[in-house]
Design brief:
This protein has one domain (2-175): Intergrase catalytic core (hpI Integrase, Chain A). With 176 residues, the protein is mainly alpha-helical. The longest helix is centred in the last third of the chain and has 21 residues, at 155-175. 52% of the residues lie in helices and 9% in strands. The protein has helices at residues 2-8, 12-16, 57-69, 90-104, 113-127, 131-138, 143-149, 155-175, and strands at residues 23-24, 29-32, 35-37, 40-42, 51-54. It has eight helices and five strands. It starts with a helix and ends with a helix. Helix 6 crosses helix 7.
Length: 176
């Protein structure tokens, strides 16, 4: 679940809502069509959330490995609790595992599912992905949400951008 969260930037409700038919391993695509909140299967958050996303071959391979060991369910949940055969409860998993891992690795704040969505956006920015592409991958209705709520550049990206400006400034100054 963490790998899917980090590699696709999905909301945790969408992750636990995934069913195997949503994953197209031939065309390397994943359809986001439902969410599960408090054990209830329902619609995704917004109309923009319902979309098809690319499925990288490395993530597809990891998911195929998971499929071989995942509990089989009648509804074909990708991430089913082996005891209930229903989607996992993300809050329980966060309290039981993510928060402990976050503290163990020294994070200054609690590690939660939404952390991966924010990190995904930050990494998209670091790759130089155009803002419009980032908006579509994040499935936001408004680009302002992508930029203002999820915008946080990595120090290395900021350093590189700033370095380019300084280079221009020094080159300009040297020619004066």
């Amino acid at each position: 679940m963490v790998l899917v969260a980090q590699c696709l930037g999905l909301r945790v409700s969408e992750i636990v809502g995934l069913q195997w038919p949503d994953l197209d391993f031939v065309h390397l695509a994943i359809r986001i069509t439902r969410s599960v909140v408090c054990g209830r299967v329902g619609e995704v958050k917004t109309e923009y959330s319902r979309d098809e996303l690319p499925l990288d071959s490395a993530l597809a391979a990891a998911l195929l490995e998971w499929r071989d060991i995942a509990p089989a369910t009648r509804v074909q949940w990708v991430f089913a609790n082996p005891q209930t055969l229903r989607p996992y409860q993300p809050n329980t998993m966060q309290k039981k595992w993510l928060s402990k891992i976050g503290r163990a690795i020294g994070l200054p704040q609690s590690l939660g599912w939404h952390t991966f969505r924010h990190t995904y956006r930050t990494w998209l920015d670091a790759t130089g992905a155009p803002v419009g592409v980032q908006q579509k991958l994040m499935r936001h209705a408004h680009i302002a949400t992508t930029m203002n709520v999820y915008g946080n550049a990595l120090m290395q990206s900021k350093r590189e951008a700033n370095g380019k400006v300084v280079t221009i400034a020094f080159r300009k100054h040297a020619s004066d």
